[in-house]
Amino acid sequence: MTRALSRMLAAAATAAMLGIAPAVPAQGTQAAPVQPKPCTTCGVVESIRYVEQAGQASGVGLVAGGVLGGVLGHQIGSGRGNTVATVAGAAGGAYVGNQVEKNKNKKAYYSVTVKLDNGKRQTLSMDNAPAVKEGERVKIVDGNRLALL
Predict the structure, then answer these.
(1) pLDDT band for position 114 (cuts 50, 70, 90)
(2) Which residues contact 25 (CB under 8 A, 6 or more apart)?
(3) What residues make up the domain containing 88?
(4) What radius of gyration do the chain's Cα atoms show?
């Protein structure tokens, strides 16, 4: 072994023990490849669920149904029978109007849970059925879309 080579090896060993990386790789060796940044939005589809959320009633359906039911009930019978029919029609109409409003405001969507590579979970809400299946590897794009990897 030549003196120059032994000096270079001794310097490299000393630098390695001190945790100092050489500025230039030794002759005949290659620099370590640069590691790509880990994907923070990549993961595996853990679950896909179809969700129907009951609608909220604002009271408009209740009032409109009550009025319409009362008008229709008033046209039935006469005397006390007319009064009972009006009240019953108003109550029934209010109930039906409230339920119609709730059904109109009902929301349905797909809830997709992705287990990210960093161990966290992220859930996305989608209006249409996703094009991915449970267990597939995906990337979350723009925070609300999935792309297969």
Answers:
(1) very high
(2) 31
(3) 56-105
(4) 35
